[in-house]
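Our working data are protein records whose layout never changes between entries. Getting from the letters to the tokens is the skill we practise here. To make this concrete, we reproduce a full record directly below:
***
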Amino acid sequence: MSKKNQSAIRPVATLAPNTHRGFTLLELLVVMVIIGLLAGYVGPKYFAQIGKSETKTAKAQIEALSRALDTYRLDTGHYPSTEQGLAALNQAPSGETKWQGPYLAKGVPADPWGRPYLYRAPGEHGDYDVWTLGSDGAAGGQDADSDVGNW
């Protein structure tokens, strides 16, 4: 054999038995149970935080609406009537000569659950009431389902 042919021939490496084994079904099941337990513990806490953030968003939006309503009152001398509603912050009500709006840059937002904010003037809790019924859309409730208002 020539030297050229000798370099082309290489010995085949043999593998020892059981050196590359995979996971057993039992090991996979144990890992899946551990992941399930972690998801069962972390999941509810995570979704509770989402409900809290929507409530905080509603409070912040109601504060912004309250500031706009107060500015409206400074300009016109009164708050919009219940019939005029929050739309009076972006469009001048008919017959309102002192209106200098719009008082909200992007219009009246929907609440974090996609429903319009409720407005009443005069309010039961003050000069006016602005509120949302929470995630359930019904009066009352607790946590994310509770009503959020300016009172």
User: Anything to note?
Assistant: The chain is about 40% helix and 5% strand. Residues 68 and 116 are 16 Å apart (CA to CA). The mean pLDDT is 84.
